[in-house]
Structure formats: C-alpha cells, structure tokens
Amino acid sequence: MSGCAKNISAGGLYFETSEEFYKNQMLDIVIIIANNGSHLSLKTKGVVTRTEKDGIAIEFIDLDMDTFILINKYVYDSTEYTV
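That's the PilZ domain-containing protein sequence above. Prediction below.
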C-alpha cells in the first residue's frame, strides 16, 4: 500500500487511501521523508483508529524516541506561520 499522508504528527497521521481497512487493524508503517534531495525512511507500527470513505486515521504505537524526534522536527520544519 502506498499513498499520501495528511495531518502527520508524532501521535499519528491521516492516510488518504481507497483501500479498505478496519478499526483497530494493526499496521507496519514506513514513512519516507524527502529533504533537500535526500530521503529518510522511518519505520513504526500503528493502529487504525478511524475509517472514512477517502482514508484512515492511524495512531502510532511503539514509537521509539529517535523516530518521535524526527517526526516532530519534520512537522515543525513544515509548518507555515502567518502573523
């Protein structure tokens, strides 16, 4: 399965997909972050917490500290601020 992750945080993500999943389904997840021509591959596990017509909400479980920090850095660096 591959697709587009939306609303990613260190707690989980929303994944756009037309594939069928069910609530509480366990998933092995690989997140690929592209940054300045290089790619970083993060592996973790997740559980489906919500299913919708166009995607699923996934909560990360067993997230190690390094992956937690890298996801937080990615989210922080990707955030646009308007004042």
